[in-house]
Give the backbone structure.
Amino acid sequence: MLKLIGLIPVLPLVGVAINGLFGRRMSKRAVGLVGCGVVLAALIVSAGAVLDLSHLPADARYFETSFGTWLPLGPAGPHNEAVTIDWGFALDPLSAIMILVVTGVGFLIHVYSVGYMAHEEGFARFFVYLNLFLSMMLTLVLGSNLLVTFVGWEGVGLCSYLLIGFFYDRPFDVRTGLTCADAGRKAFLVNRIGDFAFVIGMLYLVTQFATLHYRTVATAVAGAGDTHHALLVAVGLLLFIGACGKSAQIPLYVWLPDAMAGPTPVSALIHAATMVTAGVYMVTRMSGLYVHAPEAMGVIAAVGALTAVFAATMGITATDIKKVLAYSTVSQLGYMFAAAGVGAWTAAIFHLMTHAFFKALLFLGAGSVIHGQHGEQDITKMGGLRTKMPVTFLTFLVATLAISGIVPLAGFFSKDEILWGAWSGGNKIVWGALAFAAGLTAFYMFRLAFLVFYGSYRGEHHVFDHAHESPRSMTVPLSILAVLSAVGGFVGIPAALTGGKDLNVFHHWLAPAVAVAEAGAEEHSVALEVGLMGLALAIALTGIGFAWLVYRKRPGSAGAIAGRFRPVYALWRNLYWVDELYEAVILKPFYAVSRFFAGFDRWVVDGLVNASAIGTDVVGQLLKLFQTGYVRNYALLFLMGVAAILVYLTV
Amino acid sequence: MIDPRLVLLLSAVLFSIGVAGVLLRRGAITILMCVELMLNAANLAFIAFARITGGTEAQIYVFFIMALAAAEAAAGLAIVIALFRLRDTTDVDEINLLRW
């Protein structure tokens, strides 16, 4: 089925066409069937293609197909060589993992959406956007060159914008006064900043290396030598800024929490499992470039580690169930970037995959909770839902344990591979930051679980009485994702845990697709690796213990602690005032300048245009007076004119 | 032989009378006749110049002008008749249809 990979992004487009054209006249059942069906078809084709790929020998696992030349740029490179850019798709072990995650998790979320969105207006519109998103996401991961990837990159951004603003007329955030449509705009604009850098990076690549094709870039960069070192670092950083925008890293993370304005399945699919990981994917794709730009990798590692810690602290104080998960997503994306930054590419993608499982599950679980309580999102008004929603509770608990890194769930293996990558790569500071973030993660995730599912209900009683478990179309995807979150990590068991036997399938699968830095990692003993794992586990358990202490043993002590550390609490509660900082430093001056130019346009530019119009009008009014209609008047003027000409000619 | 300057002077006088007629009279027919007077004044000037220079160009111009004057008189009279049928008058001050 390898030859059919071009079909994979096209299949969801069929759903877009059908639901887009006829969706409003079709029953919700039919819309749902079409919407999910095309994704299932894409999933089947993807699975078949990946299966075919796996039958090839490890170093031949690369299949590329081109649908013709897109941009025949002509002479463009440094030596005036002819540059052409193709409409090409490529399947290799890296994109194979991505298409399986995207179509697999995407399919489950589509099914879930049928139940979740059942009572909504615009049901068909929702599925059109969702299918379009999937098509774009698959274009992004399958693109064989940066430009095709960029098409998908922008496409998913558009769908993200459309879906965040899905409830466009509803208010969203009291603190910032945003409506859902504003939140969509914010996401779109913040992403544009990153995309701008991305495009500049691509232009550098084209002009200096005459290619955007991933494989050719890797070889061209390897052959470029030290003369292009500064250029490589610059390109690496520019592309990373693009990744920062899409993957919500410091300083461009502010849009992701507000992206929670979208329907919950959207948060799960786009803002947790797939699109936001596109940055990590792209950076990993470009690993061939990054290994030659260690400075850029250092920046990536630092930004990733910082983001992991900062976002985790914000997750501690958030009270909106989806926002806690949003900060958690930002934090986990920081993990992935930190892994990429220290050169642990496989660990980054491994965590990307397991995170897609358990974070999608967490969001869908949160959606189930919200659905069961008729839209309540404030965790301070929940509690004791364990008995009311047993399936949601159990699956949510699995995901919480997984993200906290409890052995042997999926998150444990991927997170420890990242931590081990940081330590063995010699980045002890990154390791420390990530380990600390792991503790914070365990704490706020269990805070969430305790507040929602344990204790007594703190909201209004009639809501609790009517709280109910979600329909099967929602609980079945939850259960499947729970299984994946539980066992998904076993594909990447480190050798240290299997007595030296190499069972790390994931590692071997991905190895041919990512570049490895030449500087060999220091040799470390198995004992050290296992010891660090134990330490990480202990940190996670400590986090859980604290959460238990504060929210179960002594309920109410949270307020007291918040009061004790009021400045810190306020700092976290207000998200480090970053939005306000942007407001003051960027937006206010920007508005002032805009107002100035608006005034300039209105008074000076428009003034000039209007002045010429008024001048013409005045002259016209004056000339009008001469049009009397009296023949003798004209004759007199004629005579005066002749006289004037005669005087002029003779005197 | 008459001094050409006298002829030119007569031409100027005739032309001025024509101009004054066009500017001062209100009857459309009279105005047309005054126009003819101006054209004939011009013809007279041409003939005087032809006599001065001894060439034939000016005489050719005179024939042109005569042909033009005939055509103009035909068109002008037709217009005047049409206007008279429409307005029952040939007073040009009452015919100011092209006013703004």
Observations:
- The two ends of chain B are 54 Å apart (CA to CA).
- Chain B is about 80% helix and 0% strand.
- Chain B has a mean pLDDT of 89.
- Helices of chain B lie at 4-24, 28-53, 57-87.
